[in-house]
Known about the structure:
By secondary structure, the protein is of the alpha/beta class. 41% of the residues lie in helices and 18% in strands. A hairpin with a 5-residue loop joins strand 11 and strand 12.
Amino acid sequence: MSKRxxxxxxxxxxxxxxxxxxTNDGRGLxxxxxxxxxDQIAELVSDGVEVVIVSSGSVAEGMSRLGWTVRPEQLHELxxxxxxxxxxxxxxxxxxxxxxxxxxxxxxxxxxxxxDRKRYLNARSTLRALLDFGVVPIVNENDTVVTDEIRxxxxxxxxxxxxxxxxxxxxxILTDQLGLFDKDPRKNPDAQMVDERRASDSGLDAMAGGGAxxxxxxxxxxxxxxxxxxxxxxxxxxxxxxxxEKAIARLRDGDSIGTLLLPEQGRIAARKQWLxxxxxxxxxxxxxxxxxxxxxxxxxxxxxxxxxxxxxxxxRGEMVSCVDEAGKEIARGLINYxxxxxxxxxxxxxxxxxxxxxxxxxxxxxxxxxxxxx
Length: 374
Ligand SMILES: Nc1ncnc2c1ncn2[C@@H]1O[C@H](COP(=O)(O)OP(=O)(O)O)[C@@H](O)[C@H]1O
Ligand SMILES: N[C@@H](CCC(=O)OP(=O)(O)O)C(=O)O
């Protein structure tokens, strides 16, 4: 069997696990299965791989704890079930990772959090800090405060958005089927599994038309869509059976299990394209010659010390243009400070930011990952 290099080389991964798998098809949290995934993820972590888990199952687990056998129609009942079930989910993840002396953290997100630039940067900084500390974040939708998402949303999309957010190399979607089939295998016993495709392949849509299982929200359609979303930041997606023995460890070894959906372009090119597509700039930073030279060499962040003046009104997370003293545009990027704060720290060394602002969110005015040289 040919080996897949993508997974062997990955340093940062998102692992998304669906409701049916996590809750033993709705019978209650499958602690044994969860423990086995944790063992494999702990091995990745000790290998130096950074892992974020996107865990579904709060509604299913809440229903099971409350003794409900039929999924309620009322939104607030679903939200109540999610709140009850989330307790069990995070407790179980925490207890299982504790066996490996790994800390976990609960992150509850809504789609809005990731579309608002400022909150996007905040979520990104928190997740990055957790990963730096060797913690495994456990992400789910914040079902208490969302309305549409609990009905139409799905964690496949959330998994892809998190992969974009942390610039993961790959998204692993564990589900109750062995992978993506050319038609719904529950209804078609002759269905064939897809081994590898481009995520953009339009032929995938017809295959994934079959709807979700009783507990899941998305089915394969949302998984294919998630793969396309992940591909926008250059990440690959694997859709794979979570009940396959040692699925995660085997993927890491490069085994061709499940379906691999590939991006069109690499991560750096994809990120630059994404940044470049944010055409609207909200402000302008004029840089001194030293900063211009450093940025033009590439691969470096912009520090406040290299900024001579700040024009415009903008908020943290918005796109600004960086120009040289003659007004020629050098770079664009997502700024870490509001306009007034940027004005206050411009020209100063980063170790004075706390003294001037009373706090520090980042040492850089614009981080190199959030900047494109023009
Ligand atoms: N082409 C397909 N290949 C595989 N599964 C499919 C396909 N079309 C529809 N499905 C259905 O999608 C289900 C998985 O989606 P879902 O229930 O949302 O899972 P999860 O809880 O893992 O997100 C499978 O049980 C399967 O019946
Ligand atoms: N926040 C919800 C997500 C539901 C969901 O997306 O389920 P799935 O399709 O099984 O991943 C929950 O935890 O139940």
